[in-house]
Design goal:
The complex is a heterodimer. Chain A is an alpha/beta fold. Chain A contains 14 helices and 13 strands. In chain A, helix 1 packs across helix 11 and helix 6 packs antiparallel against helix 10. By secondary structure, chain B is mostly helical. In chain B, about 75% of the residues lie in helices and about 0% in strands. The chains are: A alpha/beta, B mainly alpha.
Chain lengths: ~375, ~675
């Protein structure tokens, strides 16, 4: 099923690519400098992602322009996104890289958001996944099929970056599983959360796929951490299936089904799934500004598709991005739609939950 | 023994990797680039590394590493130039160097101070690398011992250095530190996102102020203005003989101090989460505490340069430990370093635990490239220091506009908004007044730097501790009072007691005569007013965000008590008491220009930038300043302006940065660099 999906996606990308080339409507960027705006600091995950793609993009674009990544951090990426919203298409030398932290405030009607996704033109959507893990002694107490029920009485500590960030997805997941988790806010990155886990201060944690592979796998080998579940991945029909990077790990859905009191239907589940879809399968996207003409969009779409057809792409991307779809063309549009179009009920549920559980009020 | 069996062959391989002509060539190239960038205050390794990133892809791993490490390693060395020569803290690593280095430059001993600093840096760097080679294989469990309560205690220990740097009136130092902490809490709280002293209507403040702006504002601007008002060269006498050889001799005479401070640098650098911002202060505190004759500290004691400089390069070695062991960057430049290494190895090498296991030779190559870059960088710096020190003999009115241009550009890199310049000007004004009334600026800066970690670790230790106590009283006590915490508490108490007893002798910014009563009292009332406002502002944070309320309210309460005591003291003291220190009275004889007139020049640059953008405003500013204030001919002024603009444009173009736009730019579409 999944292979089919990926295959179909690759085919779509390839089709779009050949179309643009056949039309001969490409824009020429020779001698120009493409500025890739990242609304975060130089040190975050989005910087890694953009720095990975930038030299490849330079090679793939017609005229081989210089591609520079510039950083415009502030207000949890809403500042940079607001600034991008103000820009209009000029000559195709400005692109923008958003992340889950740009999506969530947009979905939660954060007062600082002045941007509108539907004005922008998506040319790449990169997915990722996430894995939850426990210390060995607690993992040993899990019930059949990884059920959380035996851990209901445990006092959990979780290092969190903030309830309105991407951490919303794991925090809501812990709650659905009936765990008593006290989030310790104010950590600066998920790496600090992992360190807190390693020091024995936190006893539950999650990492996105690439950080899990590099940071937690050694702990798993040493026997101090045991993976519990992955958040899963989406198939073509929008169902949650096992994460292709971690095919042996149960998904959160499977764990939820095995746990008493956790429902995989209803208001709470729908809200969780909506925000998971918004935060992970299309976490990082590349946009051209409002008003970009079709040939510019086609040029960038084709460039990103060409990067994925490099012989060495699988090798160089596996460690940096994980094995996740890098969508272009219509697939990227679909991904963007599902990531930014969350049903009103799900939004209301989460906004209400945030204010009741964490006192977070988004005026 | 087993450790050595794996370490020695890897070490051997590492040297084979490093000692190739082309690798060394790239290292020297990186060092040169790093020196060029590090000399300018505020542009640290982050700017330099971002510049190199695009070239990393596909490069041979060792050569790429050599280039990058060459650049990173020399930044803490080369920023000493700005600290010593101009009194500008080039980066967080060289804040404490300013305290004694700059007075030495003023006394005509710039070359001596510089070479002592470089010799110490070199030694510190080598100690750091040697330590890392041995320690890295055994460090993991030790680093993990430092849990949140331990991190909190180290932060408090860092804050206790305020005791030594408080100046003649300890209470003023305390209030200054509290004010620094409160300025550090401005913006969105880390726990619940409550806003403190800011609103969403002014998005600039929501993210808080950045260290580069506060550091430049509190130290650099007051010194530039003060020097301009005297209208002479920085050095007020002819350079003393001896030059750089003298400085190296100074270092040798204090080699044990240098050794101790290097170890402090390594140890503090190893602990993830604190970064390098406290290291130099702790080293300075240690230097002062262990010195027999303390009378010269703050007015040009070479030991005050050797201590912090030994620690700040050693810290780089120590800082690699969390980066290599856990894949967690200890600083911004380390974070870029991690992603650059990933580019280098085409994804096969990733900084973190797996690299230590599978690529130990590569790891050692990093460590020793760092040491080697230090040696190369230091030698170049020592060789250059005699010449660069001549800057202190130039008439300052010719140097100042150039410096101000660089500082404004550096400050603008913080958020790339015109508000960066406003913040710089505002903090600069505070710095000028603190300098004038002898309020400890180092204390303020320590407070600012440690504000965020102090609040974060307090909240986290409280939360985690409470959870442990719920599980059992014994478990809670064990967590909160671990042996390391107890040792740190004892050290902190000793340091505070010794510090307070000695504070009267140590005038970190020189002695200041008292003036009249009114001006110091007005300034104190102003500070009290701000603190009271900050108190009220955080006290009204609602209960659901109480984690963001407790810390500022506590600090503001302490500060208000301090302010009240100071006001009482002021009312009861006579006019000649040290509490009424006023530099304006002391420097009256030297100053040929008024404070407000001098300040107006820079205010006009700020206002003009807001109207027509930075470059146009700068061109006008340079031209008029050199013509009118420096009294040069129009031709001279025009040439100066052209050179200045060309220089700043070249720099911005290389680093791929823009300049602050003004109102004009929102109406007209202008070509770069006028955008």
């Amino acid at each position: 099923m999944l292979k089919k999906t990926l295959g179909a996606l690759a085919l779509t990308s390839a089709l779009v690519a050949t179309q643009a080339a056949a039309d001969g409507h490409q824009i020429d960027l020779s001698g120009k400098t493409v500025e890739w705006i990242i609304p975060f600091s130089e040190t975050g995950g989005s910087a890694k992602w953009a720095n990975f793609y930038a030299p490849l993009l330079s090679e793939a674009l017609p005229g081989n322009p210089t591609v520079v990544v510039t950083f415009n951090p502030g207000a949890g990426s809403t500042k940079g996104a607001n600034a991008f919203q103000e820009m209009t298409y000029d000559d195709g030398t400005t692109i923008f890289g958003s992340s889950g932290s740009t999506q969530f405030p947009y979905l939660l009607s954060d007062p600082r958001v002045r941007y509108e996704y539907s004005d922008w033109n998506v040319v790449l959507a990169s997915g990722t996944g996430g894995v939850a893990y426990l210390p060995a002694d607690l993992a040993g107490q899990l019930g059949d099929g990884g059920a959380a029920s035996p851990l209901a009485g445990e006092d959990f500590i979780y290092g969190s970056q903030g309830a309105t960030r991407l951490d919303l997805v794991p925090l809501l997941a812990w709650e659905m599983l009936g765990l008593q988790v006290e989030p310790v806010f104010g950590i600066e990155g998920r790496g600090d959360g992992r360190l807190m886990f390693e020091r024995g201060e936190a006893n539950i944690d999650y990492q996105t796929s690439s950080s899990f592979l590099s940071g937690v796998t050694p702990l798993v080998e040493a026997g101090t951490a045991v993976p519990w579940f992955s958040f899963g991945a989406l198939d073509a029909d929008g169902n949650i299936v096992r994460d292709p990077t971690f095919p042996d790990m149960p998904t959160f859905k499977e764990i939820c089904e095995a746990t008493d009191g956790c429902e995989t239907s209803g208001e709470q589940w729908d809200a969780w799934k909506a925000f998971f879809v918004a935060g992970f399968p299309a976490q990082k996207m590349v946009f051209l500004p409002a008003g970009a003409p079709d040939n510019a969009i086609a040029t960038f779409t084709e460039a990103f598709a060409a990067i994925q057809q490099r012989d060495d792409f699988a090798e160089i991307s596996a460690a940096r991005l994980g094995v996740y779809p890098q969508l272009t063309g219509d697939a990227a549009k679909t991904a963007m739609a599902s990531a930014t179009d969350v049903p009103q009920e799900a939004k209301d549920f989460v906004i209400n939950w945030l204010s009741e559980r964490y006192g977070v009020v988004l005026q | 023994m087993e450790v050595f069996a794996t370490a020695l062959p890897a070490l051997n391989d590492a040297f084979a990797m490093i000692l190739q002509p082309h690798v060394l060539g790239f290292l020297v190239l990186g060092v040169m680039m790093g020196l060029c960038i590090g000399v300018f205050p505020g542009l640290g390794g982050i700017a330099g590394l971002s510049l190199l990133l695009p070239f990393m892809f596909g490069m041979e791993p060792v050569t790429g590493l050599a280039l990058m490490i060459g650049m990173v390693a020399v930044v803490p060395t080369s920023d000493t130039f700005a600290s010593v020569l101009m009194g500008i803290p080039g980066s967080s690593a060289s804040q404490a160097t300013v305290l004694d280095g700059f007075p030495m430059a003023k006394k005509g001993m710039a070359a001596r101070a510089l070479s002592a600093a470089f010799a110490s840096s070199l030694f510190g760097g080598l100690v750091g690398a040697a330590f890392l080679t041995v320690f890295i294989l055994a460090a993991r469990p030790i680093v993990l011992l430092f849990q949140t309560p331990e991190l909190l205690m180290i932060t408090i220990f860092g804050l206790s250095m305020v005791g030594i740097l408080a100046g003649r009136v300890a209470l003023k130092g305390l209030v200054a530190a509290c004010l620094g902490i409160l300025v550090g809490t401005i913006g969105e709280g880390a726990s619940s996102g409550a806003l403190r002293m800011s609103t969403y209507d002014m998005p600039y403040l929501v993210d808080g102020l950045k260290l580069v702006i506060v550091g430049l504002g509190i130290f650099a601007i007051p010194e530039i203005i003060a020097l301009l008002r005297r209208d002479k060269a920085i050095s007020d006498r002819a350079p003393l003989g001896g030059g750089w050889a003298e400085g190296v001799k100074d270092w040798w005479a204090n080699k044990w101090l240098s050794m101790r401070c290097s170890l402090i640098g390594v140890v503090v650098g190893v602990i993830p989460g604190l970064g390098g911002s406290v290291v130099d202060w702790i080293a300075y505190g240690h230097t002062v505490q262990t010195a027999k004759d303390k009378s010269q500290f703050g007015s040009g004691d070479v030991r005050g340069v050797i201590g912090p400089e030994s620690s700040n390069n050693a810290k780089e070695g120590g800082g690699l430990v969390p980066t290599l062991l856990f894949g967690i960057p200890g600083s911004g430049s380390m974070a870029i370093f991690i992603s650059a290494v990933a580019l280098l190895g085409s994804g096969s090498i990733e900084v973190g635990p797996s690299m230590l296991k599978n690529n130990l030779d590569f790891t050692y190559a990093i460590v020793w490239l760092l040491a080697l870059a230090n040696v190369v960088g230091t030698l170049i710096c020592i060789a250059a220091s005699g010449g660069i020190a001549k800057l202190t003999e130039i008439r300052f009115a010719l140097l100042a506009p150039f410096l101000f241009m660089i500082i404004a550009f550096a400050a603008f890199q913080s958020r790339q908004e015109i508000w960066d310049l406003v913040a710089l000007f505002g903090i600069g004004l505070l710095g000028i007044l603190m300098r004038r009334f002898d309020w400890s600026r180092p204390a303020f800066l320590i407070g600012f730097v440690l504000s965020a970690p102090a609040e974060r670790y307090t909240n986290q230790a409280y939360q985690i501790g409470a959870s442990r106590f719920r599980r059992g009283f014994e478990e809670g006590i064990e967590y909160v009072f671990s042996p390391i915490v107890i040792v740190l508490i004892v050290i902190t108490l000793l340091s505070v007691v010794i510090g307070l007893r000695q504070a009267k002798n140590i005038q970190a910014e020189g002695s200041v005569a008292a003036g009249n009563k009114r001006a110091p009292l007005v300034f104190l009332l102003g500070i009290t007013g701000y603190i009271a406002l900050a108190y009220w502002n955080s006290a009204v944070i609602p209960d659901f965000a109480r984690m963001d309320r407790v810390f500022p309210v506590f600090v503001a309460t302490v500060a208000l008590v301090g302010c009240a005591l100071l006001i009482v003291q002021m009312i009861r003291s006579s006019e000649t008491a040290p509490i009424f220190a006023d530099r304006e009275a002391e420097e009256a004889a030297d100053n040929v220009h008024g404070l407000w007139g001098t300040l107006a020049w820079f205010a006009s640059l700020l206002i003009a930038s807001a109207l027509v953008g930075f470059i146009l405003a700068l061109a006008g500013f340079l031209l008029l300043f050199i013509r009118i204030r420096a009294g040069k001919s129009w031709g001279y002024a025009a040439a100066y302006t052209a050179a200045g603009i060309a220089f700043i444009c070249a720099m911005a173009w290389t680093l791929n940065r823009d300049f602050p736009p003004g109102l004009l730019q929102s109406y007209a579409d202008l070509p770069w660099p006028l955008t």
